[in-house]
């Protein structure tokens, strides 16, 4: 089966651009022809812009909807993420696995354009043979990219600059907060991959996550958005694998499997001298995970939400 993640995402980006005024986003054509959509830097953006942003990052193979999330009796506004193509939607598209660096510019890039660029080793472990005439990348950054950078990205993706769409929003924005929270299922898939589990056997994913309040600056927002997933995210994965494999891996999946679990992420990051690579990689996963075996129907559960840490983080 071949699904063009970029063609699906480009169609969703068209709808986002068509509703720009209602969604409080800004659309412009860069000098080289690339379409640039600002969802929260120089414009207000909003929750709905963030929801659509998140679905675009998933290459149109996942849905994001609003839902109240109740954690230990405390109600939060939140979202639900559903996908029947977890490896493609979450790792092939949504995972922010490509760092864009050029001169003084930096952005974490997610979205299906990565499947055309294939700068990451993880594509060797996925059944992804992306073919598309358009490329879509989503950037977590406050700064708009330059035209030279856009032309360079288009070249790497194998498309004309006019067939590239770049969508961006800072972490400290409504849209930015939503799109990070919507990575709750993706973090579970990425954790499985890091544990050398064959993620191609994951047949569906369902997750909920509380929405973090928008922080005053991007540094604080990185803390809050991560905490929403690490301490409030709940994920269920349906997997075509023997029960013994699921039972063996489930305890290693939640964020509580990490030695860095238990403090707001902002403090963890500060203690690591703001170096993500000094943080235990086992931390980056949902608070609570349930694995369901397709064959047996049995489920295996690990982890729990940490309301106290979440409240400390969200209060600021």
Care to describe what's here?
With 316 residues, the chain is an alpha+beta fold. The chain has a single domain (5-315), classed as Methenyltetrahydromethanopterin Cyclohydrolase, Chain A, domain 2. Helices cover 35% and strands 24% of the residues. It has 12 helices and 12 strands. The protein has helices spanning 5-18, 20-23, 47-57, 86-94, 113-117, 147-157, 174-181, 184-194, 218-232, 243-250, 265-271, 307-315; strands spanning 26-29, 35-38, 63-71, 74-83, 98-102, 105-110, 135-140, 164-169, 202-210, 234-239, 288-293, 299-303. The strands form 2 sheets. A 6-stranded mixed β-sheet has the order 1-2-8-7-6-5, sandwiched between helices. Strands 3-4-9-10-11-12 form a 6-stranded mixed β-sheet. A hairpin with a 2-residue loop joins strand 5 and strand 6. Helix 3 packs across helix 7 (174-181). The termini are far apart. The mean pLDDT is 96.
CATH H-level homologous superfamily name: Methenyltetrahydromethanopterin Cyclohydrolase, Chain A, domain 2
Strand order of the largest sheet: 1-2-8-7-6-5
Q: Biggest sheet, in brief?
A: 6 strands, mixed
Structure annotation, total helices: 12
> What is the number of domains?
1
Q: Helix and strand string, N-terminal first? A: HHEEHEEHEEHEHEHHEHEHHEEH
Strand content: 15-25%
